[in-house]
Amino acid sequence: MKRVACLLAICLLAANATATQPETGPIRGTIEQAQALGQRLKPAADAGRLDPLVVQLEKLATRLDDKSLSGDQLAEIGRQARQLKRSIALCNPLLDFDKLLFIKRHDAGGVYHMCDQYYGCNARPGGGLFVLNDPFGDNPTLTNVLENSLVENGRLKGQKLDSGSFLSPELSFDGKTILFAYSQCKATKTYTWAAEFSYHIFKVNVDGSNLVQLTDGEWDDFDPCFLPGGRIAFVSLRRGGYLRCGRHCPVYALCSMESDGSDITNLSYHETHEWHPSVNNDGMLVYTR
User: How far apart are CA 211 and CA 133, in angstroms?
Assistant: First the structure.
């Protein structure tokens, strides 16, 4: 009986020791990734910016070998490692642009599968279309592209797009025009479709002028992509069909249209969801399925 009690005590001590032993693997992985990135950028990056960051990273790696570090100390080292990794990435000389386009949006409400995140009936209102000026400098500023824009055509003519949900911005090859998807978020329940709460594709100049609606109807249209020939590829529910997993889950597939929203044509008739079309350097359309 005493032997069993002793073994139990030893097991409890071992369990407690394991529970209080901080985990360093993920932090070490971040540091190693940042070191590899620094090595890759070294031939082309500005040494005056990159080298001090690499030195700081090496010091963090040395600190991580200290077995007496507390959980809070390790958490701080992890935070510093992630910050250094980001700063090293921003030393890439290819980041020579002075504006960054992005959207702000909420995750879809009450749904968890990737398929469900792109239905306008599940979207939650809030967000917008923005440009971050001087994104890699010391004093970046924000521009709300649609702050003073009114829709110039279609069902929403004369209205502002300021109370719905935004998705999938796309910048033209010349940097002058933006495509994006927008849902008015007026659904009262999920998994229903109508024009007032489906995603539709819009086009606007980067200065907020000439805001026009390109698609409409009871279908979700999103992920627009400029094609070299002047047409626009996008993803849509227009093909029809449903997910083969058994629940009510309409499938979206690749389509294309003219730059004014006319001549909408299916590019794919596949029976599962497709996403994120993009044009590669050979002019081919690549996407996920």
Answer: 21
Residue 254, classified by CB atoms within 10 Å of its CB into exposed (0-12), middle (13-18) or buried (19+), is buried
Q: What is the pTM of this model?
A: 0.80
**5 pLDDT higher than 80:** no
Domain that holds residue 7: 2-89
Taking alpha carbons only, the member of 78, 103, 97 closest to residue 28 is 78
**Rounded Cα distance, 266 and 166, in Å:** 23
* Residues 277 and 223: beta-carbon distance below 8 Å: yes
Q: Within 13 Å and on the Cβ side, how many CA atoms surround 77? A: 26
Which string of b and e fits 22-32 if b means at least 16 CB within 10 Å?
Answer: eebeebbebbe
Separation of alpha carbons 199 and 217, rounded Å = 9
| pLDDT per residue as tens digits for the range 116-160 | 889 999 999 999 999 999 998 889 999 999 999 999 999 999 999
Nearest to 32 by CA among 58, 52, 50: 58
Q: State the total domains in the chain.
A: 2
pLDDT digits 0-9 by tens, 36-69: 999 999 999 999 999 999 999 999 999 999 999 9
* 52 and 136 together in one domain: no
